[in-house]
Design goal:
Length: 257
């Protein structure tokens, strides 16, 4: 292809984008830039396995660790672009990470969760005119009920438009600010953010699966934890104090600790 033909093709492509509302004829459509924000607390055993698979993404994605571990950070500096110390509190940590992010799209990732292949391309291809979304989830472990739990989580999320942090919420930086960021509450911050974002746009529910640890479902017994989670959600819906709910969650208890 000669230079003249190439320039004509580029010009036609930009004009076509302008017709679709993707940019004006005088604008160049640049690739989306991403920021992955990972809140950590005493994740010495899991953080390396989380960060190593993310390294190939760093050409167009920054990795931000917001660590609330007492003492020295547990993250090797070479595996992240920014390591920020924070007070404890997942919502507080994620908001702090977002304030340091340079990406157009924020991806909030738990340290015990792994992203699917081609994650950035999947988001960029499917976000369209929506402002946020999440992935389907699968839980690691052999117990058959973990598959049932994951299936129920994915179905519930599609029906309600509510995402959990385990499903890896991604959101444009502008929409995150417009929604008021994560409310700094002790538990259910992902539910609260989802409700705020739904006022801006419905979520993109990607069928590609993130893989999250099934450890918390096994800690107090799978069936007990299912009932506990439903109990906590119901009480949050009726206005229970998130601080109390977080204390119950951390101890695997149904009533006041």
């Amino acid at each position: 292809m000669n230079v003249g033909s190439y320039c004509q093709e580029v010009s036609e492509t930009i004009y076509f984008h302008s017709l679709l509302g993707l940019g004006t004829a005088n604008e160049v459509i640049l690739p989306m830039k991403f920021s992955i924000i990972i809140p950590t607390l005493n994740e010495q055993k899991t953080i390396a396995s989380c960060l190593f698979p993310l390294q190939p993404l760093r050409d167009n994605c920054e990795i931000i660790i917001v660590d609330a571990t007492d003492g020295q950070p547990v993250v090797p500096a070479a595996l992240a672009d920014k390591i920020i110390s924070s007070e404890k509190g997942r919502a507080r940590q994620m908001n702090l990470g977002a304030s340091h992010a340079s990406g157009d799209m924020l991806i909030f990732l738990h340290a015990d969760t792994h992203l699917p292949k081609h994650v950035l391309q999947l988001i960029e291809q499917h976000i369209n005119y929506k402002q946020w979304g999440r992935f389907d989830i699968q839980l690691s472990g052999d117990h058959f009920m973990l598959k049932v739990i994951a299936w129920m989580m994915n179905l519930r999320s599609r029906l309600t438009g509510i995402a959990t942090g385990d499903q890896v919420i991604f959101v444009t930086k502008e929409a995150f600010a417009a929604a008021g960021q994560y409310p700094e509450i002790a538990l259910m911050e992902d539910i609260a953010l989802s409700k705020a974002l739904n006022k801006i746009s419905p979520p993109v529910c990607l069928s590609a699966k993130v893989t999250s640890s099934g450890r918390r479902w096994k800690r107090y017994g799978i069936y007990r934890t299912i009932l506990l989670m439903w109990s906590l959600r119901l009480r949050y819906f009726f206005g229970a104090d998130p601080q109390l709910l977080a204390a119950l969650y951390s101890r695997g208890q149904f009533w006041k600790p």
